[in-house]
C-alpha cells in the first residue's frame, strides 16, 4: 500500500527501513526518503506503521 502518494513510498519501504536499519521515528525515515515533504498527509500513517513494527519487534524479543 502506498503511504506517501506524492513520492511513491510504500508501507513495505517504511517497514523495511525500520527493520533493516533500525529506524524508529519519522526523522530517520525522512533522512532516507522524501516522506512528508510535499503535502504531509502521510506522516501520521507512517508513524502508525513504525509503531506497529516496534510492537512486533518487542513481542519477538520476549
UniProtKB/TrEMBL annotation:
Cofactor(s) listed: [2Fe-2S] cluster
Domain BFD-like [2Fe-2S]-binding: 2-52
Pfam families for this protein: Fer2_BFD
Alphabetized GO MF terms: 2 iron, 2 sulfur cluster binding; metal ion binding
Keywords from the UniProt entry: 2Fe-2S, Electron transport, Iron, Iron-sulfur, Metal-binding, Transport
Family, as annotated: Belongs to the Bfd family.
Protein name: Bacterioferritin-associated ferredoxin
Organism of derivation: Vibrio ziniensis
Lineage: Bacteria, Pseudomonadati, Pseudomonadota, Gammaproteobacteria, Vibrionales
Amino acid at each position: 500500500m502506498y503511504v506517501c502518494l506524492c513520492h511513491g513510498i510504500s508501507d513495505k519501504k517504511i517497514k523495511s527501513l525500520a527493520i533493516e536499519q533500525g529506524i524508529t521515528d519519522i526523522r530517520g525515515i525522512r533522512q532516507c526518503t522524501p516522506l512528508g515533504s510535499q503535502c504531509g498527509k502521510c506522516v501520521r500513517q507512517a508513524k502508525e506503521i513504525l509503531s506497529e513494527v516496534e510492537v512486533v519487534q518487542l513481542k519477538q524479543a520476549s
